[in-house]
Amino acid sequence: MPVPATDPQAALYREVRGLSRGLAVLRALNAAPGGIGGVAELARITGLHRTTVKRLLETLRAEGLVHHKDEGTSYALGFEVRRLSEGYVGAEWIDRVAAPAMRDHLRALSWPSDLATPYGGFMIVRESTHRFSMLSQHRATIGIRIPMLVSSLGRAWLTWCANEEREATLSLLRNRTDAIAEMARDGAYVKRILRETRRRGYAVNKGEWASEASVTAIGFPVRIGEHAIGAINLVLQNNVVSDRELATRYVPLLRSLANEISKGAASLPRR
């Protein structure tokens, strides 16, 4: 789920519904297997009428953002979508260090990884190998919000971030009205999670995130000095990898990747 806009002036302008709907169709197509989808499928995902979806797709096709597939029965993302991303400038350590390191380690890890940084009480996925891993159950994860206290990403970052960042984040979580807020208000629970994660040396989530109950994930912090600036995970399906194999094979591999990213990020010039 994308992070909502926080610009206070955004409310002064009326939403352009056609643009919003077109972007919703593009996002749905981007998340579809292979970046290919039909009108009926995209209508179901976006909640838009099929006629509206068809009209939007043909508009996007005229702009070169999508093209026909399977003799016109489906649509696929076009090259212009990639060209749009050329102007994107991300955090330097993610683009220059984390992204290539994650791809280099994918062959050894096999399972997909997400790299995330904190924002607004969530971990926001900034880089991912889901689109490259043959074992991934998801195609598009960049930009989604991961809950703090029930994910390996959130637990890894919270355990090793600066104390003031941890307290500010927990305070933010306590003021929410969802299940995560109840967990954040349970001081004993929070202390136990942080204590166990620190003692183990890495974070674990075994189905505690309700929307990803079939997932087991491990996570390590990405650190500069003593404090975490983000976290990286490895996402596996429950009951596919034994606890022993997880600990003896995948934990050392992910630790090596996290250390490589941390070292590379620390070596970049501070701006």
Number of strands: 9
Radius of gyration: 20 Å
Task: Give helix % range.
Answer: 40-55%
What is the tally of helical segments?
10
Unreliable residue runs: 1-6
Please describe the biggest sheet, giving its number of strands, its sense, and whether it closes into a barrel.
6 strands, antiparallel
Q: Oligomeric state of the chains?
A: single chain
Strand order of the largest sheet: 6-5-4-9-8-7
- Shape from CA axes? globular
Approximately what portion of the residues adopt beta-strand conformation?
15-25%
Order of H and E elements:
HEHHEEHHEEEHHHHEEEH
Estimated structural class: alpha+beta
End-to-end separation: 30 Å
**Mean pLDDT score:** 88
Secondary-structure topology with pairs:
Blueprint: H1 17-31, E1 36-37, H2 39-46, H3 50-62, E2 66-69, E3 74-77, H4 79-84, H5 92-109, E4 114-119, E5 122-128, E6 145-147, H6 152-160, H7 163-174, H8 179-185, H9 187-200, E7 203-206, E8 215-224, E9 227-237, H10 243-267
Helix pairs in contact: 1-2, 1-3, 2-3, 5-10, 6-9, 7-8
Written overview of the protein:
The chain has 271 residues and is of the alpha+beta class. The protein has ten helices and nine strands. A six-stranded antiparallel β-sheet has the order 6-5-4-9-8-7, sandwiched between helices. Strand 2 and strand 3 form a beta hairpin. The N terminus is likely disordered.
